[in-house]
Amino acid sequence: MTSIRMKLQPATAVDAPAMASAHAQAFDNPWTEATIEELLGGPGGYAFVALGEDPMGMIMCRALGGEAEVLTLAVPPWARRRGVASALMTAAIHRARAVDANQMFLEVDVDNAAAIGLYERLGFTHAGLRKAYYDRGARGRADALVMRLDLTLPTG
Ligand SMILES: CC(C)(COP(=O)(O)OP(=O)(O)OC[C@H]1O[C@@H](n2cnc3c(N)ncnc32)[C@H](O)[C@@H]1OP(=O)(O)O)[C@@H](O)C(=O)NCCC(=O)NCCS
Q: What angle do CA 30, 69, 140 make, to 5 degrees?
């Protein structure tokens, strides 16, 4: 892992352009600034952004009724394998605990070995499968793995 200069901070609507930029570099179907702002302002919405000279990553979550959910996590290709996603996830988990969520869920494409590896390292376990959940255009549909983290367990 090479060292990086990164500022990780809770995101507000002001960060929507940076977050949209990071998201667009990571996904084929990028989220718009408007979508990001809407989720941020919605019930239980929260997010973190990693900033360097350019936006280095973003995570968006929702915590409601004792449960937290990761809505999206994105790190541009040039910033990967340097711990940015791990830092974003750790901040998101910390916040979920702070608002008394007792479990955190996320969905991930069954073929996304990078993300599944990241989540397993953080303690997430396999909780279910949603068949044909993702539309990958010409590449057809893909199943989503549902993963869960028990937030009541002590951190390792
Ligand atoms: C998945 C993603 C967020 C990982 O971001 P990242 O900043 O590179 O992740 P980190 O550097 O924190 O990686 C932490 C660990 O996750 C695992 N991991 C991350 N990328 C991996 C890869 N390409 N292959 C295998 N394991 C990987 C490794 O265990 C890694 O630790 P290591 O680098 O010490 O081996 C990034 O690749 C991404 O944005 N991908 C496209 C969008 C996406 O898939 N988002 C998640 C959707 S649910």
A: 45
Residue 29 CA, ligand 1 centroid: distance in Å: 19
Mention every residue, 6+ apart, whose C-beta is less than 8 A from residue 4: 52, 56, 79, 82, 83, 84
Was domain 7-150 assigned CATH 3.40.630.30?
yes
| For the chain, domain boundaries | 7-150
Regarding the beta carbon of 41 and ligand 1, being less than 6 Å apart is answered: no
Residue of 80, 89, 120, 143 to mutate, ligand 1, most atoms within 8 A of C-beta: 80
Tokens in use for 142? 């893909």
Let me know the angle formed at the C-alpha of 64 by 154 and 29, rounded to the nearest 5 degrees: 100
pLDDT in tens, 96-139: 999 999 999 999 999 999 999 999 999 999 999 999 999 888 88
Q: Is the pTM of this model over 0.85?
A: yes
Q: Over the Cα atoms of the chain, what is R_g?
A: 15
**Closest-CA residue to 108 (of 123, 118, 122, 93):** 118
- 138 CA distance to ligand 1 middle (Å): 24
d(CA 58, CA 111): 21
